[in-house]
Amino acid sequence: MQFIQVVLTTLLSVFTLFCITRILGYRQLSELSLFDYVNGITIGSIAAELATAERGEILTILIAMVLYGVVTLLIAFVTDKSLTMRKVITGKPITLMKQGKLCYDGFKSARLDINEFLMKCRNNGYFDLTQVDTAVLEPNGRVSFIPTAANKPVTVSDIKVSTTQDTLVANVIIDGRIDSHTLGNIGKDKKWLISKLKDIGVDDISKVFLAICDSRGTVTAFEKTKGQPKNILE
Questions:
Q1: Is 91 exposed, middle or buried (0-12, 13-18, 19+ CB in 10 A)?
Q2: pTM of the entire structure?
């Protein structure tokens, strides 16, 4: 009987946690603020308690879990409507570097060690601080960089070359199976796809690991390959 109760409370915990995260949105998965991070851990901890709770505690823990989700949703609503509350709850950016000079007060306010800052620079491709003009610590803990004029990447507009805008590609075959829904969304059918695959030398769909189609109707197929390639980084 106790085993069945654990199974049921675990399923209830997973279902409730899934519902809460879906309601809160994808923000919890990516751009986490300090509040989101702490609240996410708290909700997860309550969900873990729910999975092993006694029968008399289930409702209490469930209410606490839902209440945390509701409060988080309300705070997200408030921060979307009020710039002042957004600054108070999620924080505001801190300048760490400006015009090529490190801002000591910014590091002190952010409680950020210089070695940690240098690591963030390297992670963003800046191994030489002289290449950085401005660095800003965002509320989610990431550092945004503005390179110096001499190290700014060249863009297409700089060299005045005409290009076409890239668009999302459609995954029309995944692991040997045609995605009819995706094909319909791009206005194509299975007969058209098979014809395109034959044009590029693919006769057996089951051997295709992934096939994509761009906005111009060009199909690219990646066939399944056996064996593990040698890792040149080892």
A1: middle
A2: 0.59
Ordered per-residue pLDDT tens for the chain, 234 residues = 566 777 777 787 778 877 777 776 555 444 556 666 777 778 888 888 887 777 778 888 888 888 888 887 887 788 777 777 777 777 788 999 999 999 999 999 888 889 999 999 999 999 999 999 999 998 878 899 999 988 888 777 777 777 776 677 899 999 999 999 999 999 999 999 999 999 999 999 999 999 999 988 999 999 987 766 665 545
Q: Find tokens 């801002």 and name the residue.
A: 103
What totals of helices (H) and strands (E) does the chain contain, helices first?
9, 8
* Residue 174, CB-side half-sphere exposure with 13 Å CA sphere: 7
Q: Please name every residue paired with 98 in a beta bridge, in sequence order, or none if there are none.
A: 101
Mapping DSSP to helix (H, G, I), strand (E, B) and coil, where does residue 122 land? helix
Q: How far is CA 152 from the centre of its chain?
A: 26
C-alpha to C-alpha distance for 220 and 212, rounded to whole angstroms? 5
Which phi-psi region, left, alpha or beta, contains residue 103 (left: φ > 0; alpha: ψ -120 to 50)? beta
